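User: For a benchmark we're assembling, each entry needs the component sequences followed by a predicted structure for the full assembly. Here are entry 17's components. Please fill in the structure.
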Amino acid sequence: MRIEDLIKEPGEWLRGTGPEGDIVISSRIRLARNVQGFPFLTRADAKERARVEAFIRGKLEGNRTVPKLHYFPLAELSAVDRLVLVERHLISREHATSEQNAGVAIAKDECVSVMVNEEDHLRIQVIRSGFLAAETWDQASQVDDAIGKKVPFSFHPEFGFLTACPTNVGTGMRISVLLHLPALVLTKQIEKVFHALGRITFTVRGLYGEGTQASGDFYQISNQVTLGKAEQDLVQDMRNVVPEIVRFERTWRKRLMDENRRKLEDRIWRAWAVLRHARWITSEETLEYLSFVRLGVHLGVLQGVELGTVNELFVFSQPGHLQKTMNRALEAGDRDAARADWIRKRLGAE
Amino acid sequence: MRIEDLIKEPGEWLRGTGPEGDIVISSRIRLARNVQGFPFLTRADAKERARVEAFIRGKLEGNRTVPKLHYFPLAELSAVDRLVLVERHLISREHATSEQNAGVAIAKDECVSVMVNEEDHLRIQVIRSGFLAAETWDQASQVDDAIGKKVPFSFHPEFGFLTACPTNVGTGMRISVLLHLPALVLTKQIEKVFHALGRITFTVRGLYGEGTQASGDFYQISNQVTLGKAEQDLVQDMRNVVPEIVRFERTWRKRLMDENRRKLEDRIWRAWAVLRHARWITSEETLEYLSFVRLGVHLGVLQGVELGTVNELFVFSQPGHLQKTMNRALEAGDRDAARADWIRKRLGAE
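Assistant: Structure for entry 17:
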């Protein structure tokens, strides 16, 4: 398996085929784990980091009880390759800047991945297309058990899993759901959602995690309180909250279609038209238009448009994927031209 | 001949087939004339206006030495019909508001027309596609002579033709050329042109004459000093000035293509795309995009696009033509939707 393979076809979560796929892009669980007998990374020197990495890599590569994982040492990857992994939600932005003794193990369908030596020794991730909180948890739990059989996790009978940052102590779990909420944004209802979520300790982020702005009407909501709550409770919280937001978004989509159909259709068709004809387009503009196109496909305004292609484009039009696809480094300006050319080609347009 | 016929096909000047047609839309001459023995309209009552109209109408309709003219009394035309005539440059905006004893005589190809009882008793107009100052003058002169044989014009041996407004006394002539100058607008060179023109007593106006803003990068330049200058001098002035502007616009089009081709192509393709896909579009936005499309056709960026269709659209997307084509009155909002539908249909798009 090579980074090039990631470019050939999108991972499972990008297909948009899961439940509530018109609004929920993906469900994701990550578990923070550390290995007994090794210092936390905050206190480890290069040699100790190297020992941790070698130990975990060995246990992951030989493990036959989890999906086969391919290990990528980050030091062997170019800046563009790492960017591809970030855009694919396989490593964090922070992890991409790690120079030594860090890596990521990835299953072929990308549903399972493990960052090694990010903030913790291990960050196990399961990501699935659509709204699958319970299933994602089941799978994450299986992977956690399987890895835990080979790797002795730091665990305290009273506090639970021990982590480098105290906010993760306990289950070490974060559950996130990536939502596409164009109608709530258009009708300015989105602030209400944030307000309500804030009250129940959920956090809202952009498409690419912490500190990034929501773009193209995508919002990632997560529950990060891990201490004092069981995994099942965190999953249940998400199962209570997400259907509410989904219902709210659907209500406003319908209202827009009932009350302002012509203008909504106009926005959708223009977005589609520009993507198929532009010769110069930024990444932000692309996300904005793709968001309208995605909405248009789900509302039946754009017919005969492959939803899979649209979903793919969100990630494949990002700088890393674009450069990897073009097989060359591109300055920002050239990137905007190359992006426009590539999108047109991908959409079979002029 | 009926107003409906105007909607069936565009007049000669709209075809964009004349010399320097990439930049010069049309050349136009109008002659202000009054009839001996009748008071100027500024001093005429309704009865006198009616007598003037009847007199001129008789002379125009029976005249076999000019192209056959069809007379339309304005009182018999709906508000939409008059708007069509304004958009077609066959009557002025002011004339469109005349309620009684006013009319316009129009030749089938629209090259010759005569407004009756606008500011003067007669306003003879010849309009041709492209840059044809001399030819337009020759034709205007012939029409003037032919009408003058039947209608005794008010003429003073020292001052020349007498007119209602002193600014027109002398030749009573105005020569105007309608130019498409998108490159000079994009590169902000247009102010230089205006400045130079102002110094030599030319005036610059928008697409629809006095008091209107230039839209879609169209500018109408005219020479209105009529006293103390012979007709031939006015024509010659235009023949000196226009080729300079044309050269200037061409230089900047080339520079844009040499130095900023990708971004220029992007603007052109997006304009083309939006016109072919919008579901809601204002008249101003339409002009703006058509301007880029027209430029794109002339630069060879858009191939296989019929220039005649693009030129037609400039006028046919205006409110009067649109309502006449749809055969119903439309409120502004409905008009924007109808316009979008009609443009897509006309461009053979989705």
